[in-house]
Every structure is written in C-alpha cells, then in structure tokens.
Amino acid sequence: MDARQMMVFGDNADDYRAFRPHYPDALFAWLARAAKENRLAWDCGSGSGQAAVGLSRHFIKVLATDFDERQLALAPKEANVDYRIARAEDDLGLRKEVDLIACACSIHWFDLPRFYENARRALRPDGIIAAWTYDWPRTEVEPIDLILRKLKEDILGPFWGQNSSLYFNRYETLPFPFKEIESPPFHTPIARSKSDLMSFLKTWSAVEKYRLRYDSDPLALIDRELEAAWRADPPNLPLSAPLYIRCGVNAP
Predict the structure, then answer these.
(1) Which of 242, 156, 241, 235 is nearest to 202 (CA)?
(2) Inter-residue contact 171 to 240 (CB < 8 Å)
(3) Do the beta carbons of residue 190 and residue 197 sit within 8 Å?
(4) What is the CATH number of the domain that holds 107?
(5) If pLDDT is split at 50, 70 and 90, which confidence band does 22 have?
(6) pTM of the entire predicted model
(7) All residues at 6 or more sequence positions from 95 whose CB lies less than 8 Å from its CB, including other chains
(8) Does a structural domain hold residue 32?
(9) Is residue 175 part of a domain?
(10) 77-93 pLDDT, tens per residue?
(11) Cβ 100 vs Cβ 124: under 8 Å
C-alpha cells in the first residue's frame, strides 16, 4: 500500500475499526484445520485487527502487520497478538516458520510479486496462505440495489483504484501462485439497519477519496432516495455478504 492509500484509510481509522465486518469464527477454525500446525499465523494488512483477533483464538501466536500506525493503534489488544508497523513486502526475518498467512480484504493493495516472494520465505513447507474479500453490498431488493449501484458506478466511478477490479471480480482474477484448496462457503454480517449500511459504505476507499476531492459526502447524494426505498420495501436483516476466498498450499 502506498502512502496515499495509507492516508485514505488512516484518516478514516475510527470508522474502519467500528464499521468494517468481523469475520465468522467458523472461517478461522477452518483455516486452523487447513494449516495443520497452529503455532504462528501472520495477519498481513491487518488494518484495525478484525482478522487478528479471530486468528488469536486458534493460533498460539499471531503476528499482525500493517503500514498504517493509526489503524493498528485501534486494534484490540490480545496477549498472543504482536502488532507491528510493516508493509506486506517488508522482509520481517521470517524463514519457513509461518503456518498460515491471512490477508483479510487486503491483498489487492499489495505489490504482488514482492509480497509472494516474501510469503514463500516466511511460510513453512506446506504452510497455507488465504486471501479473502467481499463484493459491493447487495440487499436482494431491486430498488435499493439500483440505488447502491448508482452510488458505486455513477457517483464513485472515477474514484476506484485500478485494484478495484480484483475485489469486484471476487478475486477470481487475482494472480495466486499456490496449490489451491477449495474452501467452504462463509458469510459475514455487514449491517443490521440502514444506518449500519451507510456506516459500512463510509469505509470504502472511493467514498473517502470523493470526500477528499470535493469536501462533501457522496452518501448524502443517495440518502433520501435510499431512505424512501428502504421504507417502501425493507430488506431482510441482518444483511450479510459472502466471502470470496483464495486459499493455497506453499508447495513446490
């Protein structure tokens, strides 16, 4: 992640900590089983620690790294989690000792060739690497989803980075040079109300970039319309999002 992206997420660190989803414990339990050994997990691109906390319940030790000290400062403190300020591409001196590398909605920001070289050094033989993301939210209520699509494409369109194609394609086009393992389906809750949904949307990078460019809130452009559509045909709550996972073994 470059310095400009760090500013986007760091300036929004409180919202990111409060409103980004917490992943289901079943995901971390499955990752622990896939990793076979549960001594050390590396949460790379940890942000404010949502995945680090989940991993801490299943691994003896968790190393959680992020480029942005403002995000790490808000991460929950756990006795077996070591938070460090570092880029994904930094050599941390790890040599064939990591059982699992987890990249929770973060790998699309990395310099992939350099990160993968780093990951190969760090992972033990047959260690596991897993990267997951979610897509733009959908409610399955057509009028609401049309408004959300207008926000994504018409209002925020110029503010998505080149890497957005990776997560909007559900990591299907993510280069991933590992022997892949098929994962079971997982979902994560993203909102229990319209207010929750708006708070979640605030954390997307394009929303913050719009704010920085125009000094105004792009969500205000859809709020009244969304409120009317929500009242007319409220979606089933809580809203959840499927997680799209690429998981593989560090095999020759």
Answers:
(1) 156
(2) no
(3) yes
(4) 3.40.50.150
(5) confident
(6) 0.92
(7) 121, 122
(8) yes
(9) yes
(10) 999 999 999 999 999 99
(11) no
Residue 144 forms part of a structural domain: no
> pLDDT band for position 1 (50/70/90)?
very low
Overall number of domains in the chain: 1
Written as six digits, the tokens of 141 are 């209520």
> Three-state SS string across 104-166, please?
ECCHHHCCHHHHHHHHHHHEEEEEEEEEEECCCCCCCCHHHHHHHHHHHHHHCHHHCCCCHHH
pLDDT score of 16 more than 90: no
- Identify whether 147 is part of a domain: no
Range of the domain at 129: 3-138+163-190+239-249
